[in-house]
Design a protein that fits this description.
Distance between the termini: 45 Å
Radius of gyration: 20 Å
Order of helices and strands: EHEHEHEEHEHHEEHHEHHH
Helix content: 25-40%
Strand content: 15-25%
Length: 308
Amino acid sequence: MVYVSFCLIVPTRDRPRDIRTLLDNLSSQTIQPMQIVIIDSSAMPQQELVQEFGDLPIQYLTFQGEPSAAAQRNAGLACVDDDADLIGFVDDDIVFESDAFEKMLAFWRTAPADVCGAAFNLQEEETKATGGKLKHSGVSRWLGLYDQEPGAVAPSGWHTRLGAVSENTRVEWLISGAVLWRKQVLLNHQFDAFFKGYSYLEDLDFSYSAGRNGQLVVVADAVFRHHHHHENLSSDWYCRFGQMEVRNRLYFVRKHGLSVWRCYLGLCIRFGQTLVEFAVKRQPVLLSRARGNLAGLWKSLFMSNPDE
């Protein structure tokens, strides 16, 4: 099959500057999408986007439920054009090279029939966390805690970064912020409603599940960059995130039949790494994150309904 048409789903919330930058970027692409579905959960809706970018086929919808990237993407799936060959998810803080979609579609036109999803190629590394040597040690791999290959998922449920690839690379999971999927794959596959709010690990769960239907690939020539937001988040947010790290990782591992004891070992190591990072940097939010990790571990071990 020759793929010539695609639509994009863009969840957004309270980032008017970013969404305008993205739409301006999409206007400059050498190949345009047939539809852009914006699902906006902002406190102040931005319907004027449709008029500001009249050259783009925008369908703008406000999202009335609890803000969540996963839920907003699901809402977008219900609105895509029936004639689209491919469905893409794009975050609002992404910028593509001007020929990124042209090169991505060139890949799809010759892709093997069992390829079900393909991600764009990130051209910058995320900020590296502490414990890199431990993650990439032979002991870690021997224990099944972490893998060396990009885009791998270890028996523990921990996944390796995709990073920037120099050639088309087969992986076990894909990001949700810059990716195109075969429409057929998504007809009966949505984001798990478990992943609410910040939706931590929703991309891992979604793509790992979808990947059971075929290959997942990062396309080297289809390049994008990600704007990093350095928000001054509260200690309370970091504490909740620390609990989410435990809760969501264990949910993913149990859902996909991976190793629970390895996951717990990895979570304990993550807790220890955060404490070491706090001791070095003396940033209170790191202590809050560690407190959240500890609370999450306690709940998972001793509460009857730890996922609540």
